Amino acid sequence: MKLEITADLCDGLDLVFSALPHKASAEACIPLLEQNIKVVDISADFRLKQADVYTQWYGVEHPDPTYLEEAVYGLTELNRDAVSDARLVANPGCYPTSAILALTPAVQNGWIGGDIIVDSKSGVSGAGRSLSMTTHFSEVNENVMAYSVNGHRHLPEISQELDAVADQPVNLTFLTHLIPMTRGILSSCYAPLRPDIAQSADASERVRQMYKDFYADNAFVQVTDTPPQTKQTLGNNYCLVHPVVDSRTNRLIVISCLDNLVKGAAGQAVQNMNLMCGFPEAMSLDALAVYP
Ligand SMILES: NC(=O)C1=CN([C@@H]2O[C@H](COP(=O)(O)OP(=O)(O)OC[C@H]3O[C@@H](n4cnc5c(N)ncnc54)[C@H](OP(=O)(O)O)[C@@H]3O)[C@@H](O)[C@H]2O)C=CC1
Ligand SMILES: CC(=O)N[C@@H](CCC(=O)OP(=O)(O)O)C(=O)O
């Protein structure tokens, strides 16, 4: 059933979260924006800055591209000030949150360049509740599969954000896998590292310290000393990031993980709402992981 946004629905609203499918979400958000109601959109409708790129990857015309420029990409840690002032926040995709948080410190510092590979694994809830042959229990259980091998729709989103940080186009390969797990994303990222850094004494320690400094004031991004596991983020709003140097190949490896439904979606949406409404950023987001 199509959701009609009528004036009486909007009375007294400060902010609306939209978690509708792509296109339906923009169609629902635009009447709210026209009434100056703040919106956090959890779909992909306002994440890409260029309408033609949106059409290329989502296969539909954008309902109103004039909002694309205004929308703030809601990766809170990287865009905190802009989110605080925003009327429209495009909440990032679950895969892009894990990849962009893993790579931004090294890209921004100019420490990595050349071919970047992001290899991600997701639990099944990332696909939503609709049934398909690939998300049916008997298909997913005891199975691992790569999908969207010719290009996942989150690739332009990750590229857009890393290009902006690098101030030039990055060369990105992004590959997704479905694994027999309910929640969670684990991304393994690989990139050529500047040889002087890769060959320096205690290279991993040096890179890890740079990451720790970068995220020092960001409670929800933790730079870990050992490779993180999805269970450590189950049900919480953390993204765990572990950079390590392979000095043999002069390559940076960054492992990151998060809960696709929390830091990858609803948790980050609440984090953004807190800023947009002037609340403490971590309000209601202090849950610990359900562990083990
Ligand atoms: N799952 C994840 O990990 C993440 C999801 N997202 C995005 O968040 C949004 C929601 O995802 P998710 O909850 O997983 O998806 P689901 O498919 O599980 O849920 C979508 C919901 O939207 C409803 N719906 C569909 N079309 C319309 C419409 N035209 N008007 C009103 N309601 C409609 C559906 O109703 P009904 O059940 O009746 O069909 C359903 O309740 C999507 O845009 C998704 O891409 C973002 C980040 C991560
Ligand atoms: C496992 C799985 O199918 N994952 C989804 C991505 C998760 C998601 O919902 O992406 P948005 O944030 O862009 O909506 C997919 O690959 O399409």
UniProtKB/TrEMBL annotation:
Q: Which InterPro entries match?
A: AGPR, AGPR_AS, AGPR_dimerisation_dom, AGPR_type-1, NAD(P)-bd_dom_sf, Semialdehyde_DH_NAD-bd
Gene3D superfamilies referenced in this protein's UniProt entry, alphabetically: Dihydrodipicolinate Reductase, domain 2 (3.30.360.10), NAD(P)-binding Rossmann-like Domain (3.40.50.720)
Main enzyme class: oxidoreductase
Tell me what reaction this enzyme catalyses. N-acetyl-L-glutamate 5-semialdehyde + phosphate + NADP(+) = N-acetyl-L-glutamyl 5-phosphate + NADPH + H(+)
What EC number(s) does this enzyme carry?
1.2.1.38
Keywords assigned by UniProt, alphabetized: Amino-acid biosynthesis, Arginine biosynthesis, NADP, Oxidoreductase
The parts of the chain that form a coiled coil are none
Its pathway, per UniProt, is: Amino-acid biosynthesis; L-arginine biosynthesis; N(2)-acetyl-L-ornithine from L-glutamate: step 3/4
In this protein, the active site sits at C94
Q: Name one Pfam family in it.
A: Semialdhyde_dh
Q: What's an example Gene Ontology biological process for this entry? A: L-arginine biosynthetic process
Please name the GO terms that the record assigns under molecular function.
N-acetyl-gamma-glutamyl-phosphate reductase activity; NAD binding; NADP+ binding
- Give start and end of each Semialdehyde dehydrogenase NAD-binding domain: 1-86
Amino-acid biosynthesis in keyword set? yes
HAMAP family, per the entry? ArgC_type1
Name of this protein = N-acetyl-gamma-glutamyl-phosphate reductase
State the organism of origin.
Answer: Geodia barretti (Barrett's horny sponge)
What taxonomic ancestry is recorded? Eukaryota, Metazoa, Porifera, Demospongiae, Heteroscleromorpha
